[in-house]
Amino acid sequence: MNNSFPTKLFLGIAIFVSLIVVIGVWRGTIDTLWLTVVAMVLVGLGYNLIAKNRTMLVAFDPIWRNVLMDKVKFYVELDESGRQEFEKRIVQFFSAIRVSGVDFAMDDECRLLVASSSIVPFWDLPQWQYGQLQEVLVYSSHFDENYEVGSDHHILGMVGSGGNMAHVMLLSKPALYLGFENNSNKHHVGFHEFAHLLDKSDGEVDGIPELFLPKEMVNPWTKLVHREITRIKENHSDVDPYGATSDAEFFAVISEYYHKRPEILEKKHPDLFKMLQMIYHPQSI
Ligand SMILES: [Zn+2]
After folding, report:
1. Ligand 1 centroid from CA 248, angstroms
2. Which InterPro entries does the annotation name (predicted)?
3. Residue 154 is part of which domain span?
């Protein structure tokens, strides 16, 4: 049970008002209709309060620091206050999003890497709370279009769409781990799928994160994207060819590149780098 100050205050007021109403009904000065109205208001207020304080129901386990120190380079490089902020966001993520293993028993290490994938790229966008995401389903290996698992299958991650998949993200566990373990390549499936979610914030996964890009930059961004996609198709680009599949995949792929190897991206693609700075680190512009 949550014993924060607002909860105690609410409980005190609820007991006081309930007593007055019960005495009123007993003495015949308040009828049952009012009793029902007051009860409904109190239940509504109580529910709201619990929802607001939900983050307090999950506590950061100090053991988790070992996992973050071992696996998450971004966390290691933060100072003490930055690490505390990171831990606060881990708690926020766990309070809002379920992380489940589809065909294996989920453990804290894997859950922490999922949460870190949602924190590292969006460190300077704390107002963005994972869009409409409600659950991340992790598979023990890569999977196919029928959600069948197999190491020879090709899907590493996916953001669900439509029906009951609209609020779900799917990830392959080995691909997720590789994103954190290999710090020299440009790949990170967690960053990739969360980039799709950021793109989806305006209602469309179209490679243009309109809520995070000044309106006048939409055209220049689209031109840059198409120019680079052409280069990829002509074999003149170091961007992962998967980015040439569509504008949406380009945004996710270039986001991985930006978060894993920003210094190379800035050198080789200064225009794209500037645009991504505007999207992910707006206060630095
Ligand atoms: Zn993708």
Report:
1. 7
2. MetalloPept_cat_dom_sf, MtfA_fam, MtfA_N
3. 60-198
- 191 and 71 share a domain? yes
Q: Are residues 29 and 93 located together in one domain of the fold?
A: no
- Answer with the one of 19, 38, 57 that is the final residue of a domain: 57
How does pLDDT run across 207-229, given as a tens digit for each residue?
999 999 999 999 999 999 999 99
Residues 102-156 have pLDDT tens digits of: 999 999 999 999 999 999 999 999 999 988 899 999 999 988 888 888 878 888 9
- Buried b / exposed e across 20-41, counting CB within 10 Å, b at 16+? ebeeeeeeeebeeeeeeebeee
Question: Which residues, by Cβ under 5 Å, contact ligand 1, an ion?
Answer: 249, 252
Q: Transcribe 1-48 into DSSP letters.
A: ----HHHHHHHHHHHHHHHHHHHHHHHTSS-HHHHHHHHHHHHHHHHH
pTM assigned to the model: 0.80
Q: Which of 200, 174, 184, 180 is nearest to 115 (CA)?
A: 180
Residue for token digits 């129901």?
57
User: In what helix (H) or strand (E) does residue 135 lie, and over which residues does it extend?
Assistant: strand 135-139
Co-location of 181 and 141 in the same domain: yes
Confidence at 3, pLDDT banded by 50, 70, 90: very low
- Please state the domain count of the chain: 3
The CATH number of whichever domain residue 145 belongs to comes to 1.10.472.150
Residues 116 and 173 grouped into a single domain? yes
Distance in angstroms (rounded) separating the CA atoms of residues 40 and 37: 5
Q: Domain boundary at 171, 198, 225, which?
A: 198
| Rounded distance from Cα 22 to ligand 1 centre (Å) | 58
- In the reported structure, the alpha carbon of residue 159 is separated from the centroid of ligand 1 by a whole-number distance in angstroms of 8
Residues forming a β-bridge with 137: 100, 170
